[in-house]
Specification:
Length: about 300
Amino acid sequence: MNIVIAGGTGLIGSKIVEHFSKDKHHIYILTRNSTNKNNTDTITYVNWLNDGDEPEKKLENIDVVINLAGESINSRWTNEQKKRILTSRLDATKNCLTLMEKLTQKPKVYLNASAVGFYGTSLSTTFTEDDHDVGTDFLATVVEAWEREAIEAEALGIRTVLLRFGVVLASDGGALSKMMMPYKLFAGGTVGSGKQWLSWIHIDDVVSMVEFAVNNEKVSGALNVTGPNPKQMKQFGSVLGGVLGRPHWLPAPSFALKILLGEMSLLVLEGQKVLPKKAIDHGFQFTYPHLEDAFRSLRL
C-alpha cells in the first residue's frame, strides 16, 4: 500500500511509520521541510503547507491517508494555547481534505485522529461509540469541531475513521513518563479522588488497531482506540507502583493540581470510562488487555 501520514514523527505516528514500513508498504510523511530528511526505500518525505508546494504531484496511487497532526495538549491552557490547540487540528484536517480533493485517485480510507475527550467526563457513565452526546468542557468542544471537519472526507467517497484515542502507554514518551516520575522519586500516590477513570491502551495495540481500521472495510465513523479494561486512577497508580517496585502512598490533592495545571488539570482529575465496543464487535484482538502486562511489556 501507499500510505500518507501527517504528524508522522510524533509518538503514535513514528510507531505507525515503523510498523508499516517494516511490512514494505510505502510511507509518505508530510512535512513543512523535507531538507535533511533521509528518504529510504519505504519512506519519502513530502513538503506541504508552504507557498508553492504541490504535494499531490508527488503522491500517486495513494491507498490510505492518516492525519495525526495537532498542537500538543500537554501544556497550561492559556487562552492563546487553547486557540492553537483548536486551530492546529482544524487547519491540518482542512489541509488533508484539500490534498485528497486534488488527488486523481482518491484513497480508499482516511483516518483522522480524535480523542475520547469527545464524551466529556464522568465518574459513573460507561461510554462507547453508540454514545453521541458531546461533553461540554474545552476538550469535548475541540473534538466535536475536529470530527465535524474530518467527516467531510465522506463526501469525497472516502471511508472515514475517527480515531478516538485514550491515554497511550509507551516507554519512550507520552503521558506515562510524567505519571512515572513521582513513583521513581518514591512520592507516588493517588491523584485527586482516585475514583476518576483512565481509559488506557498500549502503544502496540494502537498500531494494531490502526492497521485493523485500514484493512477492515466495515469500520467507519468513530472508533474508540482504548483498551478493554479501563482503570480508576487509584487502581492505575497502585499497579504502576507495584510494577516499578515503588510505594503508592503520597496523595496529590486536587486543589494543588488545579493551581499547578489550571484547566488542564481535568486531564488527570476527571476522566471517562470508555470501551472499544466497535473494535471488539468487529473481532479485534488485544495483545495487552490487562494493565500489569502492558506495563511489564514496556520494561519500565
